[in-house]
Amino acid sequence: MEVILREDYISLGYIGDTVRVRRGFARNYLIPRGIAVEASSANERALTHKLSSIMAKRIKKKAEAEAFGKVLEQVTVEFTLKVGAKGKSFGSVTTRDIETSLKALGYEIDRRQIRLSETIKGPGVYKVEVKLHSEVSVAVQVKVIAVQPPVSAAGTQEKGKKKSKSKKSEEGESAEGEESAEVAADTEETES
Fold first, then answer.
1. Neighbour order of strands in the sheet with 124-133
2. Among 14, 69, 83, 165, which is disulfide-ready with 138 (CB 3.0 to 4.6 Å)?
C-alpha cells in the first residue's frame, strides 16, 4: 500500500514523500496517528494544495538540521573497550552506545539516525554518520580507547576452578542442610 507522509518518520522518509508500506502498518498505525494519508488521487490533490505549507515546514526542518549538524560535528564521543592479552577486543561499540553517550551530552539523537559503516571493535578514531534530515548528514567523531584488564590469564583460570568447586560444595551443603531440617522436623513430630 502506498501512503504519503504528513510528518517525518525516520525509518520511512520525510514530509511529502510517497512510500510503500504494509497495509496493516498503514491502517493501524500511520493513518490513525496522522503520520500519513493513503496515496489516492483525492488525497494527492488535497496534499498538493497543502504542499506549499509542507514545503515551508520541510525547508524549516532542513535549516534546523543544518544548524544542529554544525554543532554536532564538533562533538567527540569517547568509549573504553576491554582488550585481551593478544589484542582481541571484548565487545564492540554499537549505535545504542553512541545514542546513550550523545544523550548524556545533551543531544537528542535516535539510534536509527546513526549509521555505522563498519562494526567498531578496536581502538582508534572513527567517523560515524548521523542522518539528521533526508538531505543533511553529519559525521560525529567516535574515539575508542583500549583498556587491558589487570588480571593475568593464569589467575583467571585458577579463579574459574575455585568457583566451580565452591558451587559444588555449596550445593552439597544446601542439600545436607535440607535433609537435616527434615530430620529435625520428623523428630519433633514423633516426640509430641
1. 76-82, 136-147, 124-133, 114-115
2. 69
Q: What is the DSSP-derived secondary structure letter of residue 27?
A: I
Distance CA 54, CA 132 (A): 18
Q: Is the dihedral of CA 13, 107, 96, 90 positive or negative?
A: positive
Longest CA–CA separation in the chain, Å: 94
Pairing assessment for the beta strands 2-5 and 18-20 based on DSSP bridges: antiparallel
| Rounded CA separation 141/128 (Å) | 6
Mean residue pLDDT across the chain: 77
Scanning the chain, the segments in alpha helix (DSSP H) are: 23-25, 41-72, 95-104, 153-191
Q: CB of 6 within 8 A of CB of 34?
A: yes
What Cα–Cα distance (Å) separates residue 36 from each residue in 11, 17, 18?
A: 13, 10, 9
Read off the pLDDT of residues 89-111 as tens digits, 9 standing for 90 and up: 888 888 999 999 999 999 888 88
Cα torsion 1, 22, 131, 47 to 10°: value is 30
How far, in Å, are 99, 113, 143 from residue 109 at the CA level?
A: 6, 7, 18
Of 148, 155, 156, 154, nearest to 86 by C-alpha is 148
Residue 168, classed as helix, strand or coil, is: helix
- Sequence-distant (6+) residues with CB within 8 A of 68 are 132
Cell numbers given for 179: 535433609
